[in-house]
Amino acid sequence: MSRRRLGQLEAEVLAALAGADGWVSATELRTRLDGEPAYTTVNTTLYRLCEKHLVARERRGRSFAYRLVVGEAELLADRMFDQLRYAHDTSVVLSEFVGRLSPQEEKVLRGILDQREQP
Fold first, then answer.
1. Does residue 84 contact residue 90 with C-beta atoms inside 8 Å?
2. What is the pLDDT of residues 100-115, one digit of tens each?
3. Angstrom distance (rounded) from CA 26 to CA 73
4. CA atoms within 13 A on the CB side of 102
5. Cβ-based neighbours of 87, under 8 Å, separated by 6 or more
6. What is the pLDDT of residues 37-70, one digit of tens each?
7. In Å, what is the CA distance from 57 to each residue of 5, 23, 94, 108?
């Protein structure tokens, strides 16, 4: 099994929770993740996400169920912005980002930027 980059498992867990309808157990969540990481690893990740106030948990019998408490769009936008803050030259980073967009993604971004320019 290959090791994930730091923060990658958190991102995968958050994405899986965003795609879930309601509360999800750690066991169920584990099956939705690539490579089905160890149950204890998923539990530790969920605990840390709860501490960061990104995930809520509710007791269900002897275990817990989890759900995302922030919007996925807000969460990902915050992460993107946080990474951009560390760039020496943001224009180069943004240019690289835009250069990797698919034609459809570029069209969506262009539409969003055009809307912002309108009074």
1. yes
2. 999 999 999 999 999 9
3. 23
4. 2
5. 93
6. 999 999 999 999 999 999 999 999 999 999 999 8
7. 25, 8, 36, 35
